Amino acid sequence: MKKADILNAIKGRLIVSCQALDNEPLHSSFIMARMAAAALEGGAGGIRANSPEDVAEIKKTVDLPVIGLFKKEYLDSDVYITPTMVEIEKMAECGSDIIAMDATNRLHPNDQSLEDVFKKAKASFPNMIFMADCSTYEECLHAQKLGFDIVGTTMRSYTAETQGVKIPDFELFKALKENLKVPFIAEGGIWSPSEAKKAIECGAWAVVVGSAITRPQLITRRYADAVASALK
Length: 232
Description:
The chain is an alpha/beta fold. The protein has helices spanning 3-10, 29-42, 52-61, 85-93, 114-124, 137-146, 170-179, 193-201, 211-214, 216-229; strands at residues 14-18, 46-50, 66-69, 98-102, 129-133, 150-152, 184-187, 206-209.
């Protein structure tokens, strides 16, 4: 599919994040692919997934655009979402339709700036759609200036600068709608259908929901805590 076709396919749609880290109960490429199949059946317009193995299995299972990322920790950097060209190359090779990268103002591993890494990524994969995972309004504007095709609010409240900020941040969504020329994807802290709807009403191109759909241990904890509170 061409870039425009992929972007149009997710416009106004729900993107379900199917991720489970190796310390979580559902960690398995097979399980994530079945989760993606369930998301498709429920009406999802796209999938967000972590690791080459999960993306490859999901692409074999569902015919939906997939935002691929590769979480990898390095000792010399706080950036862990597709942080270097090693991860970018693997995500391109496994069939990602869109590659998500950390686009915060932090240095990438080996003291590489975002500009350095992204310039190499674009040169290596000129036809790939790149999504900037940002935490602030300023980072979103900077990502657009660098040439990212999509920006997302993925890292809002997950960086030192934004720690404690309430998410979803609908005021941020409105500001991005007013001042960005590229599409933005609302992501982070969206727990209810009404919040997802509001994100679209605020101008989001698409909405990513993860934990509220695909992390049953967190969903269960919300209910368990509510039940326990009734007994206090």
